[in-house]
Amino acid sequence: MISRFNKIRTYTIHGHMNILPIKYVCQKPHKYAQIQLNTETHFNAIIMDIDDEDLLAEWNAVGLPVPTIQTLNHANNKAHLIWLLKVPVSKRNKKAVQYYRDIVRSIQILIGADRNYQNHQTKNFLNTSFFRTIYNDYAYDLGEFRQFILPSSTVVEEINREDIERSKSRHITLFNQLRQYGYKIAKNKNLYDLLKAKAESLNEQFDIPIKPNSIIKSVCEFCYENRNNFKAKSTSKTMGFARILNLSNDKFIKEVAKRQSKAAKRTTQLKVARTVRTIKVAIDHLRRKKLKITQSAIAKFTKRSLSTIKRYAALIRKILMKKNGLIRSIRVIASGGEERAIPIPLRGIAECSEYGGRQNYLSAPTLYNKLPYRLNLEYNLYHSRKNFNE
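^ thats the sequence. predicted structure below, dont judge the formating
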């Protein structure tokens, strides 16, 4: 029956998961408590989880075919019913998956199976030390279950009814109330004692109190493990404005207009910053691809209009100057680097004999037009000293 599997996902009695050859699992079945029949790509079987001992034979009462495997737990008589499929259902076929799920939901309602069961892994029916197994050794076509599909309205009504009943459960109610309280005190040293006192207080709301020990333990363990992940709900707003109180109508309107203006400016600044970052990415991309950097190319890459890119023309020039090493610091760009950049030679100053040495070079009137760019430090220093001496 399981010969179709070359390898199978297993879960040991200690909860560890592994994927092993099926031959190894058959040789040492006592090591594994569960195996996975329905994989990430295919449904190989219909699996039902029966938690109520009185419903073990309900499949026969509603006329379902005999399960391929019935796996019963020795300890509590809970069982898994498995109908193996001749042809696995591929999860890529959406219509087939929907058809399969309609059958599964209908059978769950008909025989009272656990509707929250994930329908993938099942009790290891090869492990006879843990489970009692009944084999039928027959696989079914999915079409053989078609007659058991319930109308969608019936399924929806049943699901809604179960949700309502579940929401009224005392255990669920206590758990939800206690966990919300636990999130707030997760870092308290006396976490368990506080949860226990709170649970005893909440338990008084029920006509018939329940035993909350397992709920307290579960909530306490979760809150302690995640104590650094709970964040207090933030009451501050994005703009940090205080609430408007005790203002006349005119002052209220003016205050709202003032705040709207500040918010609009902030939004504009965020949009500009986002556009600047996009333009920088576009320039880097064009440089890596060795493409010509033009406003049209940047607009195409950033998916912005050409008019928008033109508004950032000065910024684009500054970015290109930084990329080419003509502006040394990004702070120069931020403080108006384009105006500070002046021409300098790529060769050393001593080699510029065409200006007649260092003094003539620095005082040359055509310096801005003939040489490459650099910061205007040495040039300004020279002229400031010259003017001071004069």
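The chain has four domains: 7-163, 169-225, 254-324, 341-390.
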